[in-house]
Amino acid sequence: MLSNEKIDRMLDAPDFDDAAKALIDCGYADMSGMNASQIENVLQERRADIYYEVSHYEYAWDLLDLFRIKYDYHNVKTLVKSMGSSADASYMLSGSGRIGIKEISEAFSTGDRRDLPPLLAEAMSEAVGVLSRTGNPQLMDIEVDKFYFRELMSIAEKTKDSYIVGYVRLLIDSANLRIAVRSVRTGRDADFLLVALIPGGAANIDEIAAQAADGSLTPFAGAVPDLAVRLGADAMKGGSQTMFELACDNAVMQYIAGTSYVSFGPAPVIAYLAELEWEITAVRMILTGKLTGISPDVIRERLRECHV
Description:
This protein is mostly helical.
């Protein structure tokens, strides 16, 4: 997989083509000469190929779903937001979910959602209702996200593995920390937080809503690493949002890295799939950054920690 050394080589490459060619020996197709859309297609194919390989192992199915369902819920959001629009949103749909693009698109357009997983079908129906009633895509996103994390936790609890449940709980707490910080920065009140916050984390959502509006993030103590909480408090007062968001991402990667010497069980599978997501994100940031002339130092600042 992509290492820190390879990242440095890509960032320091004199041009886009040289950066792209550095990925060939990591198993990627040659992306030199490609545009941003073509790069995205290659990255989607890379993820799909690895997901397909992992799916051959029955013990990994539930673990793979922990990563695939994100793309199902992304597709729900995309399809619902396309309601009433003449624009073709199909290019924004992801083929990395459990449900194929054709199947989920047909379920949306026909209204026949019987073949979708129950929570995904319910999320689609609720999303349509929320957007139809309010015309507010943010409220629709909030509703879909709650279904996403609810199903994520359901899958984790099904494994009866404390490491996986802890991983999902950290994802929820990190998401709620982001919601709290962004809400305060945009002048939202406690009532909005009570609507937006996601149940299931270690940090109590009632306490978050009550205290975040006053600038306190103490409910997250012990639920999210101290650095992310501290940078979140700084961001609420006008500090760097980028550094805060990066700290939230790194908190999850640090949790994964804590099992780097575990050889058996679900932890190595989770670590591998999480590192794959990290790698694809890093490749996208570096290559599109090179295409648009962003400084290597700026790209480097935005990259999450690598534990390969």
